[in-house]
Amino acid sequence: MSTPGQSVSVVGLCGSLRPGSFTRMALQMALHGAQEVGAQTQLIDLKEYDLVFCDGKMDQTAYPEDVFRLRREVKAAGGIILATPEYHGSFSGVLKNALDLMGFDEIEGKMIGLVGVSGGALGAVHALNSLRTIGRALHAWVIPEQASIAEAYKLFDSSGKLRDSAIEKRVKDVGRQVARFAYLHTSEKAQEFLRAWEGAPENPGAS
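Structure (tokenized):
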């Protein structure tokens, strides 16, 4: 398969604010996978953004500039990797709030990959399932591949590397697939197909 080249960008949202976060380590690894196939990447560390709680108000003039900065950075990307710890059977509040501050303008039509970490033996599957639902609700393309890292404190070494090569490959594959599918989605052939699809009759098989 052709590599995306520098025309495709992938951003990763880190849904953990904890110092020494395993979520951040996993996200860096996934973004490295995207880099390996030629994508430009950016890690969006939400602890570095001054975000308000989403209150649903129409008037956003008082929002801090970082809200609009976050929106611009995500909107400009062709692919998104969402990384989260699993808290109480779901994903983190900081990631939920960041997603609530965005919408279709930033996320619709984008390729999304999911990475989760957990301190427990069952991994972050519940958190990732919830994020998959949000991706569908925002009309994004959530790739089939995902990475759930159970008992993360046992698997990462002090340098942030995974001790299990199979899990490392799975995490990197998330980034690789996001970049590759984003490239295919924006290619001229894909655009021709989408234009033909959109111009087809609503029910071509009907009598």
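The beta strands are 9-14, 40-45, 79-85, 111-117, 141-149. The domain at 5-199 is CATH 3.40.50.360 (Rossmann fold).
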